[in-house]
Amino acid sequence: MTDRAATTRTGPPGGPTTATPDPYRLDPADAIEPPTSFRGRLKYLGPGLVISAAVIGSGELITTTALGAKAGFVLLWLVIISTAIKVWVQLELAQWTILSGKPALEGYSHVGPRLGRRAGWINFLWILMDFAKVLQRGGIIGGAVAALSIMFPVVGEPLGTPSLIFWTVVSLGVVISLLVTNRYSVVEKFSVAAVVVFTLCTVGLAIALPFTDFAYDSTDVASGLTFAIPAGTLGFAVAMFGITGVGADEMTTYTYWCLEKGYARYVGPDDGSAERARRAHGWIKVMRTDVLVSWVVSTVCTMSFYVIGAAILHPQGLVPEGNDMIVTLSHMYTSVMGDGAQWIFLVGAFMVLFSTFVASTASVPRLWANTVALLGFYDWHDLSTRTRIIRVLTVVFPIVWALSFLVIQSPVLMVQIGGVASGIFLIAVVIAVWWLRTKEVPKEFRSNHALTVALVLSSLAVAALGVYSALETFGIEVGA
């Protein structure tokens, strides 16, 4: 009989300081009693903030600001809904991960029909979506590289092809070397700090606008809460809905970070005991707090970027496009604070986009390594093989993304394409979530009626988005 003290321990006040050799394998010895207070739960936050740092660069900075510049205040309501409506699907998927100890892609494989030995149709749909996301990630790299080229045009003119190539190569070298040499934790802390600083500056600017020449008032805000969609902005709005907040790929990735943070390991393997169920409830509360905090950060950030785009860029007829995206976006600062503020924006924009680049480079190889295992090429629990595959993909993927940018050189368009692909995949994620909830989540963990209603509403909205995106993909025009 296993000694109780050996299977359940209390984590240190500042959170766990050690990790098991394999974060994807459950061991009874890793079980930890969950914190019982909100303050205690805050000490174990992390995965949601990593996801927030990842999405700010693509959705919030680029697409949301561009939508505000194009539509004005009228779509402010969509910003609020797009960040809030998808959270409930994320919560349900992450709960299944904590209870099962398995990442999302493995859960997707449980939903039939299967098209391979272990992979299901959703896994193959994910593969197709990720090919489209290559363009989005290339657009993110392009934005960061454009900022560097403007600040330091080392080779030729700013935004010239030689300068862009030079800074692309430098950025690739830095990110790949940091991740391959296991120094990602340092980059992550720096990136999150940079996002926080840049976001605080942007929120401050949005709040200060009423006292400048680009003032907005309650009438403008009210016009943005009328649920109207002006002509010519529907496709752009769908892309924003797919990207801002947590998209399909962020929901999927979040489960991997939950596992690597230790939420499932601290619950322990399912032995059917009441103690294990109690720990599961406690760590699911930690996860929900993590999602709540990241949702607040994402919503405040997204609204600020949109308001700035609507108040500053829209009246001037400035819409971010092509490689001039960074220059156009910099007008958010220079129009209010003068030409000297361009450097403040460029440094902040680079940090935000670079953090997104780093987060993608860290997460996508994990998802593909899991996919390769599901396709039957190796055993996912073979730690050495998995590690080698992730390291190889960490080198290969950023190069592919960067090449896509150098060929297309239109960051806004590239990010929008990835957003539409995410919108289509969202409907498959909803199907998987309901299947897993019905078949594999114990009844006691789905008895909260308020959460169930929220999940239903979220699922309906996501389904509508997915249907629209699919129709648009096949050339069937819906709306203006």
Descriptive keywords:
two-stranded parallel sheet, 480 residues, 19 helices, mainly alpha, disordered N terminus, 1% strand
Mean pLDDT: 81
What's the total count of β strands?
Answer: 2
- Binned strand content: under 5%
Given as residue ranges, the uncertain stretches (5+ residues, pLDDT < 50) are 1-20
N-to-C CA distance: 68 Å
Task: Tell me briefly what this model is.
By secondary structure, the chain is mainly alpha-helical. It is 71% helix and 1% strand. The N and C termini lie far apart (68 Å).
Write the layout of secondary structure elements.
Layout: H1 4-7, E1 9-10, E2 32-33, H2 38-42, H3 47-71, H4 76-84, H5 87-100, H6 104-108, H7 121-151, H8 161-180, H9 184-208, H10 218-223, H11 234-243, H12 248-261, H13 263-267, H14 274-313, H15 325-337, H16 341-374, H17 383-408, H18 411-440, H19 449-473
Parallel strand pairs: 1-2
Helix pairs in contact: 3-9, 3-11, 3-12, 3-14, 3-16, 3-18, 4-11, 4-14, 5-12, 5-14, 5-18, 5-19, 7-8, 7-16, 7-17, 7-18, 8-17, 9-14, 9-16, 11-18, 11-19, 12-16, 14-15, 15-16, 16-17, 18-19
